[in-house]
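Hypothesis: this fold can be encoded by more than one sequence.
Test: take the structure tokens below, design a sequence, compare later.
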């Protein structure tokens, strides 16, 4: 999509060095969504794929490109020293690109089976105990559904179904002026017979009482910029919203997480790191802290089960041993394991996998639960991947100076959208944090002796425009997200989702239920939602005023 105005935006997908446009100074900062160090002026199908100016200015372009290949190319189950080897023994996708089409948000999937081999299907199954709202322990938090070698798929995806159901709100899906809209939500079914360990005889209180939801992947562009927001700035935002809750201005606030101006729960990593606490800022559930140990750093390992030097073990289930126990007892797995493992490993390095004094069951269990597996992703590859991850730019806003966009911006603020979708933040000195304490220790590495944090692109003192308060809220939607609490998703760049992903719809909200901006807004309208009054104001705007808000949201 090209824009003809006073601005120049590249219309060439191969042009990774588009020039910054000449901009009206009155709206200049609004175009630089990622600040001067983090914004790319490309609005084509490759808009989400661009390096930040900070990457290029610091000579990191080669590292960025190498990291990009780690994201895009499939991993394989080869063990012959080939490139991108090590997939499995269990896995969910063979590449990151499968979940992040065009590097953005996942695409909505149609009625029918749940097929993770479909590129663009960014859905993750969320399987949990409705009584406690905790994940079940017999699957991983991001459930694996495929296996390699003699092992059996943890889930049979042909038995998992998605059904899109229509929803009618209290206003009969109709605005006061007569304009109508449609709403839908997904219902996903995961029958017991689709679960390998249940079929093999595993049972606990949750195997007959669990619920399933869908969560789609979030766009990765600009994540490095939000990582540069100081912890105390995010804390101050939570404190501001706690004060609003205490005064009765809002109905919902997660006091269990934040009370009396202080965090009650932090993100920390005591497995690879030293347990240092960090403010939560990533994923819908805000389950992750700094980017060097956030969703991408985690997913490159647990989605593929490709090991690296700091994670030399398999990601099987939350218990850690349930799948291993039942797979090791499976006669078909036992029959095939000895011949298969002989092609995978050196008996001198892993004697327990080959010891004929042990039963085949014991050898399989040792293999699946070993904490000292061979390293499959080199430190160099992982460093490059994280340079790429932290180095992805945000697309510049488009046509901000247009009258209809400025009118939409004003209305967006007037009706209250900006209370949760806070427009801008200012980054701090950007002293990159690494909860993993990942140190390159291999003398053959190009980065021997350096910390991962010291190699990252940085974004100090930038005014950025993510349009999120980085606080969790409840919308009380039908078939809502697990726990109901969801971090305010940044709006920047989302207007380019369709052109970047190839999706026919805008795919908004955590499970892609909203096919356009109007639907996304109206899903905020439950009587118990803190966005209720905003939605009521939105409903009472004229059709042209509503459209100007939509156009503004798509422009940012």
């Amino acid at each position: 999509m090209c824009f003809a105005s006073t601005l120049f935006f590249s219309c060439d997908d191969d042009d990774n060095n588009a020039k910054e446009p000449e901009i009206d100074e009155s709206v200049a900062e609004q175009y630089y969504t990622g600040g001067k160090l983090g914004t790319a002026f490309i609005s084509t199908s490759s808009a989400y794929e661009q390096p930040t100016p900070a990457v290029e200015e610091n000579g990191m372009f080669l590292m960025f490109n190498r990291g990009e290949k780690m994201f895009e190319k499939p991993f394989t189950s080869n063990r012959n020293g080939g490139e991108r080897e090590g997939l499995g023994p269990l896995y969910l996708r063979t590449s990151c690109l499968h979940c992040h089409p065009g590097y953005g948000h996942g695409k909505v999937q149609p009625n029918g089976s749940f097929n993770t081999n479909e590129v663009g299907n960014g859905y993750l199954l969320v399987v949990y105990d409705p009584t406690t709202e905790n994940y079940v322990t017999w699957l991983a938090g991001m459930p694996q559904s495929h296996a390699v070698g003699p092992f059996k798929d943890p889930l049979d995806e042909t038995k998992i179904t998605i059904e899109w159901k229509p929803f009618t709100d209290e206003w009969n899906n109709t605005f006061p002026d007569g304009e109508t809209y449609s709403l839908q939500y997904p219902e996903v079914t995961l029958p017991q017979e689709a679960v390998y360990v249940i079929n093999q005889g595993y049972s606990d209180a949750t195997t007959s009482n669990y619920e399933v939801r869908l969560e789609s992947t979030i766009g990765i562009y600009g994540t490095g910029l939000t990582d540069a927001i100081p912890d105390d700035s995010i804390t101050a935002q939570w404190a501001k919203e706690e004060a609003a809750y205490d005064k009765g201005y809002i109905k919902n606030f997660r006091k269990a997480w934040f009370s009396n101006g202080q965090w009650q729960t932090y993100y920390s990593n005591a497995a690879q790191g030293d347990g240092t606490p960090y403010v939560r800022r990533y994923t819908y559930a805000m389950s992750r802290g700094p980017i060097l140990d956030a969703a991408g750093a985690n997913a490159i390992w647990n989605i593929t089960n490709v090991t690296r030097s700091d994670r030399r073990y398999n990601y099987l289930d939350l218990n850690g041993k349930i799948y291993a126990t039942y797979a090791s007892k499976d006669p078909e797995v036992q029959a095939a394991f000895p011949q298969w493992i002989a092609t995978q490993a050196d008996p001198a390095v892993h004697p327990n996998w080959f010891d004929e004094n042990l039963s085949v069951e014991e050898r399989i269990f040792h293999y699946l639960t070993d904490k000292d597996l061979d390293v499959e992703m080199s430190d160099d590859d992982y460093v490059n991947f994280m340079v790429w991850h932290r180095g992805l730019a945000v697309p510049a806003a488009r046509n901000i100076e247009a009258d209809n966009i400025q009118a939409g911006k004003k209305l967006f603020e007037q009706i209250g959208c900006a209370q949760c979708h806070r427009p801008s933040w200012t980054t701090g000195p950007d002293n990159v944090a690494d909860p993993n304490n990942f140190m390159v220790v291999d003398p053959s590495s190009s980065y021997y002796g350096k910390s991962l944090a010291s190699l990252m692109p940085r974004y100090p003192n930038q005014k950025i425009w993510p349009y999120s308060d980085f606080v969790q809220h409840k919308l009380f939607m039908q078939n809502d997200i697990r726990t109901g609490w969801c971090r305010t998703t940044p709006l920047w760049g989302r207007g380019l989702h369709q052109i970047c992903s190839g999706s026919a719809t805008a795919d908004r909200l955590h499970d892609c239920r909203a096919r356009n901006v109007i639907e996304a807004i109206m899903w905020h309208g439950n009587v118990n939602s803190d966005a209720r009054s905003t939605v009521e104001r939105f409903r009472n705007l004229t059709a042209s005023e509503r459209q100007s808000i939509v156009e503004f949201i798509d422009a940012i």
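Residues 66 and 384 are 6 Å apart (CA to CA). The chain is about 25% helix and 10% strand.
Hypothesis status: open.
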